[in-house]
Amino acid sequence: MNKLYSKIEFDNSKSDQLLPLRCIECKKVFYLTKHYIQIARIGVEKRGRKYGAQFCSPQCRESNRHPPVIVICLQCGISFRKSPFQIKKHPNHFCCQSCAAKYNNTHKTKGTRVSKLEKWLQEKLSTIYSNLDIHFNCKDAINSELDIYIPSLKLAFELNGIFHYEPIYGRDKLNKTQLNDQNKFLKCGNKGISLCIIDTSCQKCFKEKSSQKYLDIIIKIIDEKIKIGTDEEGRTPVGC
Hints:
The protein is of the alpha+beta class.
């Protein structure tokens, strides 16, 4: 053990007096009673134990027994240390929560927030415009998700439901949503992408009959883009 007290201090101390030691793993100073230190020392000398009053916590003891391994963050490529226990529990390596969130959002295959309306529109548009490369719910254009994006036409669509206009989940959530909407609009403008905002807040539940008007709006805008063959600037707000 790394003692921070002298033999005289130890001999003159009482059984319940705390004495300073330094953890051999994290190097932090911690305190144990004289009585506990005596028991630990006896355990090492007489019972053949390897460890005795050397660590400030069970975590440091475990880390010393099983040293960390150098791993690479899947998102940013930075190397960092990870314990064998953490590797077994979390086989994907991320240096921070931000990297984990970015990676998981990019590679998620389930649990997506795609509405029934979006899925229906995707099916219809893919059939109607089979010759167009249409991206659905992708981040490749502006590094932020667009509901519908057609690269060849520099044209994008956002389907904004009631959560974009009313504080269903509170004012803070609404402010964040609207700020994100503004950022998407600015990013599209910087990239020369025409962003069409379609207000779908009046559709309380999905039905093909009530969804047809949104499909008709999108088809009209796409056909006009194809016809004139030019890119428009800004966004086209379309209401219910």
